[in-house]
Amino acid sequence: MPFVSDKVSNLPPYLFSEFQRKKKELEANGADVIDLGIGAPDLPTPDFIIDRLAEESRLAVNHRYSTYSGCREFREAVVHFYQKQYNVELDPESEVLAVIGSKEGIANLMHATINPGDTVLVPDPGYPVYGTAVHLANGRSAALPLDDANGYVPLYNQVDRATIEQSKLMLLNYPSNPTAATAHFDIFLEAIAFARENQLLLVHDAAYDMITFNGYETTSAMQVPRAKEHAVEIGSLSKSFNMTGWRIGYVVGNKEIIQALATFKSNIDTSQFLPIQKAAAAALKSNFSAVTEHNKIYQERMEKLHRGFRQLDIEADKPKGTIFLWAKVPDGFTSMSFADKLLQEAGVIVTPGNAFGSRGEGYFRVALTVTADRLDEVISRMEKLNLKGGPVK
Ligand SMILES: *Cc1c(COP(=O)(O)O)cnc(C)c1O
InterPro entries, from UniProt (predicted)? Predict the structure, then answer.
């Protein structure tokens, strides 16, 4: 098609579409498919947030364009959140920017920072959106291997010197999608030191910062002294407050980068609808009791599945947060052959680990976004597959 750009034509095929096609086919034949592939909360947005949206949407002043960088109330709510949660000070004018969901923020951040051919280090395994965002900005991505034997921390010494020298930017994501790994302060200290030494910008995606179990508190990259010289952090309301469809998030940190992104975006969009920003501000300024309640539900699901997997001899580390369980495929399977078998023979969709990079091979990701009853059903279906002997063929 001559009117479609190479950039778009060359995008990798959407890996989940084949599974979704098979799902439809099975469902058309009357099968009851349980989809654990969907990495989005199934729970509703808390009422107090919806109430604020309803109120604000009735006010004519809110029907106009927002300021480009997001309204003051939203940016101040982000500042408040960083103070309360991380004891980090931010300037609402120069160090905070509203984005239309973090996915938008990530994509436009690439355009605002890299030149054609620049290299970006992306975690492997990691969220596939990073690689495509780099591609769309005409950059090149290089894998930053994460250590599966040690909690998926970055293995900087496994990236060759030349690649590091060509790199302009490095992405990290903790708590992580897909591995559910979390990172303590030292990991961020090391990341900032690596960024400083190699003149890189660290971009930390904190999409799951609030989804934790047993009161575990995540670290922000901004807590590292002088982090703002070398880093920005991207946050999102999507997962913490079940607001995926609302499209609201933020970027905080380095002033020049925030300014560059704001300038780039001001030529593309005019920020998010004001009532959505104000409802999101209410969420960030709330006492987080809604988040705590949701976290209990995710934890209960996680524990149940983890127990079930253990009985099936499927290995998985117990995560401290996120809406995922990351598990090893049984002996004799690849990520793909296992995901295929689960769909064909048990009517269960999981995401094969290789969808997240070559180092995801041998694993599969389960999203904790169905009810505990459905997870019981998943385990009972898997028990019938007799997985311990490997694939029979
Ligand atoms: C879901 C997800 C996002 C996208 O969040 P939005 O704010 O809804 O765009 C970003 N990063 C990771 C790692 C995610 O899993």
Answer: Aminotransferase_I/II_large, LL-DAP_aminotransferase, NHTrfase_class1_PyrdxlP-BS, PyrdxlP-dep_Trfase, PyrdxlP-dep_Trfase_major, PyrdxlP-dep_Trfase_small
Does residue 1 lie within any of the structural domains? no
Residue 234 Cα to ligand 1 middle (Å): 9
Atom of ligand 1 nearest to the CA of 173: 13
Contact 364, 382 (CB under 8 A): no
User: 99 and 124 in contact (C-beta within 8 Å)?
Assistant: no
Same-domain status, 319 and 339: yes
Q: Is residue 263 domain-shared with residue 305, that is, in the same domain?
A: no
The H or E element that residue 262 is part of is helix 255-266
Quickly tell me which residue has 């708590």 as its tokens.
Answer: 175
The CATH code of the domain that includes 156 is 3.40.640.10
Query: Of 284, 313, 344, which marks where a domain is finished?
Result: 284
Whose C-alpha lies nearest to ligand 1, atom 11? 207
Residue 308: in which H helix or E strand, if any? helix 289-311
For residue 99, give the ligand 1 atom closest to its CA: 7
Last residue of a domain, one of 232, 255, 284: 284
Q: What is the pLDDT along the chain (393 residues), one digit of tens a residue?
A: 689 999 999 887 766 678 888 889 999 999 999 999 988 899 999 999 999 999 999 999 999 999 999 999 999 999 999 999 999 999 999 999 999 999 999 999 999 999 999 999 999 999 999 999 999 999 999 999 999 999 999 999 999 999 999 999 999 999 999 999 999 999 999 999 999 999 999 999 999 999 999 999 999 999 999 999 999 999 999 999 999 999 999 999 999 999 999 999 999 999 999 999 999 999 999 999 999 999 999 999 999 999 999 999 999 999 999 999 999 999 999 999 999 999 999 999 999 999 999 999 999 999 999 999 999 999 999 999 988 655 544
Between CA 248 and CA 56 the distance in angstroms is 16
> Could you tell me the two tokens for 287?
């006492």
Q: How many domains does the chain have?
A: 2
Same domain, 122 and 247: yes
